[in-house]
């Protein structure tokens, strides 16, 4: 491993000053992605700036818009009873991320900023239409999560910006959600994953949000499928058609984990089964 200076600032102002002096410095939160990169010589920063001692960057504040600090650990998400009640799809996804040891140090902000297409918390946050608060020395701005992901490992954040908060609008009382993930083994990265949110008025879908992971360069909202479902009475055959449509619009790759054909099949089945589950019919 290459040598580096490890900084532990106590405020964002200190972080900005450290980065002004050392523009190539890298931020580190839980380190579960960053230290793998350093160890494998994918990153060789001369300076690492830890965000862990900065006040107000972690914690969960429920409200009309729930605020989750970027440094909140995945375990803290899972343990928060009110979050589990309001955003069960996020907590379900979080509980399938890595192992307990990883979840105890990995942060929500790190999972998003790492910008992997298989980040488990990305799809539930996309279906809840989360936005992110980014802070630079001069300004604070909010961006919708779906604009944040630009490509694998690439976000729309400027080099000097730090993710401080994840903001989640409250779902309507009639919203129902589901998360599905397929790994090769337990505690594995996703071969494919899916989050679905449906709002229903009796049998009719009034709002549909679907997002898929590991099947495109970034976690992906399935806009065409959403439009197809909205305004329709949902049933088994419509669920099957939505699955076929989803399989067509994703752009998976073949890699060490799975072939692109297999990923398409998983998403087709996940979309179909998710809809069936959410409308209360036995998944076929
Ligand atoms: C064994 C193992 C299993 C794993 N399994 C899974 C899994 O099943 N699912 C999954 O999704 N992930 C998995 N991961 C990946 C990883 O644990 C998660 O992505 C984790 O949430 C990253 O958070 P972190 O705090 O450790 O990020 P770090 O490694 O500290 O940082 C990741 C990146 O984000 C940047 N960053 C972090 N915080 C901020 C911020 N606030 N503002 C700006 N930039 C920031 C860092 O500079 C770095 O580039 C696994 C990792 C390991 C080692």
Question: What labels would you give this structure?
Answer:
globular, Uridine Diphospho-n-acetylenolpyruvylglucosamine Reductase, domain 3, Uridine Diphospho-n-acetylenolpyruvylglucosamine Reductase, domain 2, 35% helix, Enolase-like, domain 1, 5-stranded antiparallel β-sheet, 12 helices
- Series of secondary-structure elements, N-terminal to C-terminal: EHEHEEEHHHHHHEEHEEEEEEEHHH
The main pleated sheet reads as: 5 strands, antiparallel
The 3D shape can be described as globular
CATH class division of the largest domain? Alpha Beta
Helical coverage, percent range: 25-40%
| Spatial order of the strands forming the largest sheet | 4-5-10-6-7
Kindly state the number of beta strands: 14
The CATH topology of the largest domain is given as Uridine Diphospho-n-acetylenolpyruvylglucosamine Reductase, domain 3
Number of helices in the DSSP assignment: 12
Which hetero ligands occur in this complex? flavin-adenine dinucleotide
